[in-house]
Amino acid sequence: MKKDKIIFYVATGLLTILMFFSSGMYFFNYEEVAKMFGAFGYPTYIIYPYAVVKLLGLVALWFLRGKFLNEWAYAGYFFTLAFFAHFMIGDGEQMGAIIAMILLIVSYIYSKKI
To answer: Which domain holds residue 27?
Structure first.
């Protein structure tokens, strides 16, 4: 049981760091993110709300474990970790998306075990 908790906290902690950096980039490096969103074909007006939702998802992951909103946070992250979008535009960010997806899956599995 202790091993499961350690794995959960490490995976969720690393995922949290990734999401904090991502949200921070959305807030503080808007021009670069707007270019990326344009390449994806996404509208740029969703950048700030998307950053806020990413942060709220972290709150759900850490403080609402096993509850309805927690499940939706995992689902939201799963669908927004855009490996295929990065792959299709060829921006070289596929590895970050793969790492985030692995951390997300590990966090989800071990959240069910503890």
So the answer is: 2-113
